[in-house]
Specification:
By secondary structure, the chain is mainly α. The protein is 78% helix and 0% strand.
C-alpha cells in the first residue's frame, strides 16, 4: 500500500501526504496494538518492523517532519505487548526487541556526547583562532 504511493509522492500535496500517513499509522498500528493474545500469535514482528520502516521512509521522502521517537515508542509498545503475551515465542521476541532498543539508545547517547564534545572543541578553537584535530 505504501510503496505505490511512494512512487508518486512528488505529485502529492504535503497536506495529503500528512493526512494519509496519519490515517494509515492510526489504522494499522491501532489495530495491531489492539490485538488480543490469541490474535497476536499470528503477527510476525519482522513484518511490523517493515511496516514502521516503510511509513518512516515514506515520510522522509515526502519531506515531512518525522519523529523517530514516535516510531520507536510504537515499536516499544508492540514489544511490550509481545512481552505480556501468553505465547513464549512472542515473549522472547518482545524481550529481544526491548533489549535491542536499550542498546540502540546507549549507542545514540554515546554519539550525541561525542558530537557535543567535538562542537565544544570547535567552538574553543574558533574563539582562540586555532586549528584543532578531531577524532
Amino acid at each position: 500500500l505504501i510503496k505505490p504511493i511512494m512512487k508518486v509522492n512528488q505529485f502529492l500535496t504535503a497536506n495529503f501526504v500528512t493526512d494519509f500517513t496519519e490515517q494509515l499509522k492510526s489504522a494499522i498500528f491501532g489495530h495491531i496494538l489492539g490485538l488480543e493474545d490469541a490474535e497476536l500469535k499470528g503477527v510476525d514482528i519482522k513484518i511490523f518492523h517493515e511496516l514502521t520502516t516503510s511509513v518512516q521512509l515514506f515520510m522522509r521522502q515526502s519531506l515531512l517532519d518525522i519523529s523517530s521517537k514516535e516510531n520507536d515508542m510504537t515499536i516499544l509498545e508492540f514489544s511490550l505487548k509481545c512481552l505480556n503475551c501468553s505465547s513464549i515465542e512472542k515473549k522472547l521476541a518482545g524481550l529481544k526487541e526491548i533489549k535491542y532498543y536499550i542498546t540502540t539508545v546507549d549507542k545514540k547517547t554515546e554519539q550525541i556526547l561525542k558530537y557535543e564534545q567535538q562542537q565544544d572543541l570547535i567552538k574553543q578553537a574558533q574563539e582562540n583562532d586555532q586549528e584543532i584535530q578531531l577524532d
